[in-house]
Amino acid sequence: MEQLGLHLAGPPTAGIAPRAVADGLTGLVKLANAVEGEDEDRPLPDWVISDLSIGSVNYSVKPAVGQEDAGSHRLRVVWQGAQQLRTSAGIPTGWTEQAVQVFLDLTKLTRFRGVKGTALTTGKNETIVLDDAIQEHAVRSLQGVSESLATVRGTIVRYINDGGRREVGIREVPSRRSLRILFPPDLDHDFKAALLDDLPISVRGVLKRNSEGQKLALMAEQLTVLPAPRQPSRARDMLGVLGKDWTGDLDSVEWARSQRG
């Protein structure tokens, strides 16, 4: 997918509020950055404006030169998630709670002067209208939150500690779905160590779920770094395991051949 756009419908004579244009453009970039990337070890792509026209306002963003693969993957995840929200509530595949909140904000741009409707667009004349139904599905995806103590396991794929927020994203085992974990300052060292050593973790804390039963986020209280998974044994690893007193002075390979006749 080459680009993702936003259409703000409005009569050209009435004029659309500049804040609507600014918030919509910022929202497109935030949404693309909030979904899962193809490779979470890569930094977030840079984005550039690829289309801009006025009257009714149309604009699009696309990945910067040299970052097309990573950026296009994120745009596909956004588009497919928006299609899911068009038909039902729930956190779409590859999306996070934050991504749904940004999407919901885009559906509310009609609160600004001159904006009569909004829609996501692509460079292929495809459109997803951000109407009342899709807004309701986004709202339901975030509301009805229940909280309970739970333990989750997985591998860290994203780490953020910018002073304003501390969180990691993990790839859960066995579902492989992404989950956002918020943590207090005293756990920062352990999270960084697990990330640098690429070790699986087990985290216990308060888990938030939406009304659909989907996991939204976990507020970490305890972290356990787990040992690295054992690699499957190979035949060559067995060389020399059996002493010659077990095999009649044959090495283990010769002894195995003799047993097969």
List keywords for this structure.
30% strand; elongated; 2 domains; 261 residues; alpha+beta; single chain
Write the layout of secondary structure elements.
Layout: E1 4-9, H1 18-34, E2 47-53, E3 57-63, H2 68-87, H3 97-107, E4 117-122, E5 127-129, H4 132-142, E6 146-161, E7 166-172, E8 178-182, H5 188-196, E9 201-209, E10 215-225, H6 244-247, H7 252-260
Parallel strand pairs: 8-10
Antiparallel strand pairs: 1-3, 1-4, 2-3, 4-5, 6-7, 6-9, 7-8, 9-10
Helix pairs in contact: 1-3, 2-4, 3-4
Task: Give the SSE order as H and E letters.
Answer: EHEEHHEEHEEEHEEHH
Please give the order of strands in the largest beta sheet: 2-3-1-4-5
Oligomer state equals single chain
Q: Outline the low-pLDDT stretches.
A: none
Number of structural domains:
2
For the termini, the CA-CA separation is: 60 Å
Structural class comes to: alpha+beta
Describe the protein in words.
A five-stranded antiparallel sheet has the order 2-3-1-4-5. It has 261 residues and is of the alpha+beta class. β7 (166-172) and β8 form a beta hairpin. α1 runs antiparallel to α3 (97-107). It has helices spanning 18-34, 68-87, 97-107, 132-142, 188-196, 244-247, 252-260; strands at 4-9, 47-53, 57-63, 117-122, 127-129, 146-161, 166-172, 178-182, 201-209, 215-225. It is built from seven helices and ten strands. It folds into two domains: 4-142; 146-225, Nucleic acid-binding proteins (OB fold (Dihydrolipoamide Acetyltransferase, E2P), Beta Barrel).
